[in-house]
Amino acid sequence: MRLTDRQREDVAAFAAFTDERIIPEANHWDAEQHLSDEIVLALGKARWLVPTLPVEAGGTALDVPTYGLFSAEMGRGCGSVRNLVAVQGMVAHAILKWGSRAQSERWVPRIAAGEAVGAFALTEPENGSDARNGRTTAERIAGGYRLTGRKKWMSFGQRAAVFLVFARLDDEPAVFLVERETPNFTVRPIGGLLGLRASELAELELNGCEIPAENLIAHGRLVFDLVATTSLDYGRYSTAWGAVGLATACLDASLDYARTRTQFEVPLAEHQLIRALLTDMVAAVEAARLLCGQAGELRAAGHQDAVRQTLIAKYFASRAAYQVAGDAVQVHGANGVSSDYPVQRHLRDAKIQEIIEGTSEIQRLQIAEATLQRTRV
Ligand SMILES: Cc1cc2nc3c(=O)[nH]c(=O)nc-3n(C[C@H](O)[C@H](O)[C@H](O)COP(=O)(O)OP(=O)(O)OC[C@H]3O[C@@H](n4cnc5c(N)ncnc54)[C@H](O)[C@@H]3O)c2cc1C
Question: pLDDT digit string (tens) for 338-350?
Answer without folding.
Answer: 999 999 999 999 9
